[in-house]
């Protein structure tokens, strides 16, 4: 699907910072072109961070604030949270319903999500929460959100009409087939990730270098010239 046909995009991710590690540069390009982007975080990231001096509830509140600040760096103002427990997400019918509800509310043309598959070549994106959210989000796109008889209470009690998202972009999976050059938006990606200070503050000046290593490898895989930086996705037609 060409971006000219896209009005709204929903990013469904497991934790605060997932969308920024995987796609902040791409999201910045979308919002620069006038596309509305909404974030849905399944957890509040309460199991993250390195500070034993704060409670898990305080960490969750901090990470919600960090995600809102990061979203502003790339032009996103609508950030939603489902409040599932970090580290214990499963692809349940309840999670499918909760994601389908937001799909029907937002009515996106494209949904960005983590991969439901494990990548044995690069294990870090394959956190079990990521895979569970990817599986539930893909099921929420097809068949749940588009089927008026799936979770009928969404229509009968909440008035949410069925909606078909026409395309899915999968981040962090083993079968990337689409690359987005984000070289000119790299600084905004770094700014978004620095907003997650509880997760990235310890990296200091090493954060941009680490990102350049990942993104340069993506660009090389895409055949882009040396020095370019790219984010990678698998694009699935779900129309």
UniProtKB/TrEMBL annotation:
Assigned keywords, A-Z: Hydrolase, Zinc
EC number annotated for this UniProt entry: 3.5.1.-
Chloroplast keyword on record: no
Record GO terms (molecular function): hydrolase activity
Protein name per the record: PIG-L deacetylase family protein
Domain of life where this protein originates: Bacteria
Pfam families noted in UniProt: PIG-L (PF02585)
Record-linked InterPro entries: GlcNAc_PI_deacetylase-related, LmbE-like_dom_sf
UniProt entry tagged with the keyword Zinc: yes
């Amino acid at each position: 699907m060409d971006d000219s046909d896209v009005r709204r995009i929903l990013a469904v991710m497991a934790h605060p910072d997932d969308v920024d590690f995987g796609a902040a540069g791409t999201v910045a390009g979308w919002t620069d072109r006038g596309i509305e982007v909404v974030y849905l975080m399944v957890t509040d990231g309460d199991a993250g961070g390195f500070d034993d001096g704060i409670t898990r509830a305080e960490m969750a509140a901090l990470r919600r604030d960090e995600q809102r600040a990061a979203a502003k760096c790339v032009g996103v103002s609508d950030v939603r949270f489902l409040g599932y427990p970090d580290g214990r997400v499963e692809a349940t019918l309840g999670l499918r319903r909760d994601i389908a509800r937001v799909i029907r509310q937002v009515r996106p043309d494209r949904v960005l999500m983590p991969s439901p598959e494990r990548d044995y070549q690069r294990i870090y994106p394959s956190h079990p929460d990521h895979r569970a959210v990817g599986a539930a989000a893909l099921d929420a796109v097809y068949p749940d959100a588009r089927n008026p008889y799936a979770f009928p209470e969404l229509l009968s009690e909440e008035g949410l009409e069925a909606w078909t998202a026409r395309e899915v972009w999968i981040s962090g999976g083993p079968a990337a087939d689409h690359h987005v050059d984000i070289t000119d938006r790299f600084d905004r990606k770094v700014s978004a990730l620095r907003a997650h200070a509880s997760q990235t503050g310890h990296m200091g000046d090493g954060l941009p270098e680490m990102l350049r290593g990942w993104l340069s490898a993506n660009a090389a895989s895409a055949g882009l010239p040396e020095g370019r930086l790219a984010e990678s996705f698998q694009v699935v037609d779900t129309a």
